[in-house]
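go over this chain:
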Amino acid sequence: MTRFLHRGLLAAAASLAVMSVSAPAHAQLGGIVYDPTNYASNVLQAARALEQINNQIQSLQNEATSLLNQARNLNSLPLNQLQELQSQFQRTQQLLGQAQRLAYDVQSIDTAFAQRYRGTNLSGNDRTLVDGARDRWQDSVAAFEDSLRVQAGVVGNIDGSRATLDRLVTASQSATGALQAAQAGNQLVALQSQQLADLTALLAAQGRAQSLDMAQRAADQAQAREQLRRFLTPRHGYQPGNARMFRD
């Protein structure tokens, strides 16, 4: 409406300007003095005022659009998957905390190796050697079992990670502002960190099992050499004595 009115006022001003050139400066119409020049000037002023109003309206519209965009940029993401990711972290950490016999602790590792591996008592009797070998074998079996359990836990987290990834990608694609996009990106980074933590736990469990297996083999080799040495060491054989088969 304002645009059409603006155009009409401009056309009227142009026509009045032409009339002011050809008509007298003053005209008497029914007792009313009509000045075409003054009327044309007033129309032009009204047109300029209307144009200023249009500019102000356009400026207000731009400001309103900017405020709406700012409001959208400040909207938080309605999806929050951090609790689910933390639960997956905790499940993996619990599996690591349930390590049997030789746990993920520097002090317990040092103690166990001092007693059963590095400091193997080769001067004990055969029974002591057998007990030490059995303890080392149990350490290795428990470590392999723990590794398999961690693997099962990591595999179990895959389905949850995939579902979380689908939800976060959908939320990021439908984000309405910069804040929602940033929050979706942060949660995707958290998901990646959780997957890296699972991979780290899996490698740690497998490395623990392999290290204990190799340590067992090294200790068993030292024990085997000691047992072979004992077997080959000459001992007191049969000592003949006086035997009486028949009574006198």
Observations:
- Residues 2-73 form one domain.
- The chain is about 75% helix and 0% strand.
- The CA atoms of residues 50 and 56 lie 10 Å apart.
